[in-house]
Design goal:
Elements lengths: L2 E11 L10 E17 L6 E5 L4 E4 L7 H12 L7 E7 L9 H17 L5 H16 L5 H8 L3 E4 L14 E4 L6 E7 L7 H13 L1 H24 L2 H18 L4 H12 L4 E5 L6 E6 L4 H10 L4 E7 L7
Parallel strand pairs: 3-5
Antiparallel strand pairs: 1-2, 2-5, 2-6, 3-4, 6-7, 8-10, 8-11, 9-10
Helix pairs in contact: 1-2, 1-3, 2-3, 3-4, 5-6, 6-7, 8-9
The chain binds (3R)-3-hydroxy-3-methyl-5-(phosphonooxy)pentanoic acid (PMV).
């Protein structure tokens, strides 16, 4: 049966400052994936979607406003097979609402599996565009980071246009693939604390408006370290990258988006031998990441579990691997 999967993503460095025009780096997490499996349906049954982990099952035509119904029907129409009787089972190991791109990964796995089922061969750019269009319809103005990292399964350099000071339409973001010199190991720990992205983003905005010079200084410092992190990634210089991640965490603490739970896990990872550690994503909860050596990763993962992390993942950052 056609089966396809797609990875989670994380922001490696540059979150928040990216909203103010500085660069950010996002990476795919190859070991943490969502998947979709397509089976033939009974004649006349239409397109069924099943999410057994959520206890959900529905007929796409009956719930047209569901984002996955809409994406599946759009994808099949685009591939020239609008009216098939299929049953698609979706699964995901990616914690939801944690900044790990679970929505984009499930959507990408769904499109890849449907393409495989009908013999279509969309390239990553086409899949990324379809997932972006779906996110845009249902979630307002996505940045484009998630669909790009997930569909290309490659580290990216991302620069959004400067925060709009006028009513002019925003410029398209700059998105470039980044090469990773040597495989690097990341350990991810989830605080289990869910926090809506918009809350810390709004708090940073209010603080920036109240004290522009200080916050522009923080954003400049983050922009500089993200540029250095790109070189360290490309050359595979893990110790330098680890140090830059620590510096980024200190600046995120200054921005006020860290939390005691995040700092506890970050501290535990450093004490267990991480080369560097920081929160990832919007903050006030969600996940932290630690850069480790391949051999120290299991020890650091165990330390995070003992410290109360609700999910712990070990994954390797590689050159682009587009895997079904
Ligand atoms: O929720 P995430 O992990 O995709 O990260 C949000 C990143 C921010 O820079 C805080 C906000 C943004 O829109 O870029």
């Amino acid at each position: 049966m056609p089966h396809a999967s797609a990875p989670a993503k994380l922001i490696l460095c540059g979150e928040h400052a990216v909203v103010y025009g500085r660069p950010a780096i996002a990476v795919p997490l190859s070991a943490v994936r969502a998947s979709a499996e397509v089976c033939p349906g009974t004649a006349g049954s239409g397109l069924h979607l099943l999410a057994p982990d959520l206890g959900a099952a529905w007929i796409a035509a009956d719930v047209p406003d569901n984002p996955l119904s809409e994406l599946a029907r759009t994808a099949l129409a685009r591939f020239g097979h609008a009216n098939l009787d299929l049953s698609v089972t979706l699964r995901s190991a990616i914690p939801i609402a944690s900044g790990m791109g679970s929505g984009a990964a499930i959507a990408t796995a769904l499109v890849r599996a449907l393409a495989a089922a009908v013999g279509a061969t969309p390239d990553p750019a086409e899949i990324s565009m379809m997932v972006y269009a779906s996110e845009q319809r249902f979630h307002g103005t996505p940045s484009g980071i998630d669909n790009t990292v997930v569909a290309f399964e490659q580290a990216i350099w991302f620069v959004r246009s400067r925060l709009a000071q006028t009513d002019a339409p925003p410029l398209a973001p700059l998105i470039e693939p980044i090469s990773v010199g040597t495989p690097l190991t990341l350990v991810i720990g989830d605080t289990g604390v869910r926090s809506a992205t918009r809350l810390p983003v709004a708090a940073v905005r209010a603080a920036w408006e109240a004290d522009l010079p200080t916050y522009e200084g923080y954003f400049d410092a983050i922009g500089t370290l993200v540029t250095q992190a790109r070189s360290a990634l490309t050359t595979g210089d893990a110790p330098t990258l680890g140090h830059l991640l620590d510096t980024n965490q200190a600046l995120l603490e200054q921005l006020g988006v860290s939390s005691p739970e995040l700092e506890r896990l970050i501290q535990v990872a450093r004490q267990a031998g991480a080369l560097g550690a920081k929160l990832s994503g919007a903050g006030w909860g969600g996940v932290m990441l630690a850069l480790t050596t391949p051999s120290s990763a299991p020890t650091i993962a165990a330390a995070l579990t003992n410290a109360g992390a609700t999910h712990v993942f070990i994954t390797e950052l590689n050159e682009s691997i587009i895997s079904p």
